[in-house]
Design goal:
elongated; alpha/beta; TIM Barrel; binds nickel (II) ion; 300 residues; three-stranded parallel beta sheet; six-stranded parallel beta sheet
């Protein structure tokens, strides 16, 4: 009897234990399911709380970044100041750019003219001769030689009569006659005229409309002093850029003074040229000039 009861208790215990085990498993599963659900809900809620580009109604803030290229810096060597622009060298052929002086000889041709031409040739100087028509007609050879050796020729009246003592028509006829004598002797046409004594007026100038009156701004006074040292001093010290220097082909001392004058002017940087070469363009008639442009700078 007791054993029967024990068996039933055991059986009951077994059943109870089975029931008890089945109940624990279900509760565990329910708990896990609940935990997962809570976790999922939590994740969903957390997701909804986060700002999202896709879900946010506010436009995403934009930011513009300006990028300026950095200047290229030569780190190898510091920048050096740009050098001063170098002006081009002066044109040695233009008396507007280099200082020029024109040597002129009046009153020839004379017995001294061949020696004068020899000296100019030796010194390699081109000069300008203002000749008397009467002397040209009587002694054409030095005039022809002067032209052949590159010197410039002009008239100085027929026989050194002052133009102011003649009517304009007479003075101009005298000048034309002299120009024809030069043409006949040397084969060159000249429109240059040096009035004797440097005397002229507007009526004469305009009457001789085909002539350019060439005066001077430096007088060596060779006709007065006949002194080589004084002639040389005037010839070297007095000229400025563009100067026209008055000398005479009838003064022996002038021939002797010439080498010193040429050397002195060249040492000061002057280029020695003919009267026309003082100007970049051909000399226009119906004007009186005392010098060329003062614009040249010494070349030496
Ligand atoms: Ni004269």
């Amino acid at each position: 009897m007791v054993s029967a009861i024990d068996d039933r208790v055991k059986e009951s215990s077994v059943d109870l234990s089975r029931d008890s085990g089945r109940g624990n498993w279900g509760a565990w599963r329910a708990s896990v399911s609940l935990a997962i659900g809570v976790l999922v809900l939590g994740l969903v809620a957390f997701k909804l709380m986060l700002p999202s580009e896709a879900t946010s109604s506010q436009p995403a803030p934009t930011r513009t970044v300006f990028v300026t290229p950095a200047p290229e810096v030569n780190k190898a060597a510091p920048p050096s100041p740009s050098p001063e622009p170098v002006p081009p060298p002066p044109n040695p052929e233009s008396c507007a750019e280099v200082a020029c002086v024109a040597l002129t000889f009046d009153d020839g041709p004379s017995a001294y003219t061949p020696a004068l031409l020899d000296k100019l040739k030796e010194l390699e100087v081109k000069a300008t001769f203002f000749d008397l028509g009467q002397s040209v007609a009587n002694n054409p050879e030095p005039v022809k030689r002067a032209a052949e050796e590159g010197h410039e020729l002009g008239g100085h009246s027929w026989n050194h009569t002052s133009m102011a003592k003649q009517t304009p028509e007479q003075a101009c006829a005298d000048a034309d006659r002299t120009a024809r004598a030069i043409r006949d002797a040397a084969g060159v046409e000249t429109s240059l005229l040096r009035p004797p004594y440097g005397t002229w007026n507007d009526a004469i100038l305009h009457a001789c409309a085909n002539k350019t009156f060439v005066l001077w701004d430096v007088d060596t006074l060779d006709w007065s002093t006949h002194d080589v040292a004084k002639i040389t001093a005037h010839g070297v010290d007095d000229p400025k850029p563009g100067s026209i220097v008055l000398m005479h082909g009838t003064v022996a001392e002038t021939v002797d003074a010439l080498p010193g004058i040429v050397a002195g002017l060249r040492a000061k940087g002057y280029k020695l040229v003919t009267v026309s070469e003082l100007f970049d363009s051909p000399l226009a008639p119906d004007q009186a000039i005392y010098s060329g442009p003062r614009t040249g700078v010494p070349a030496g």
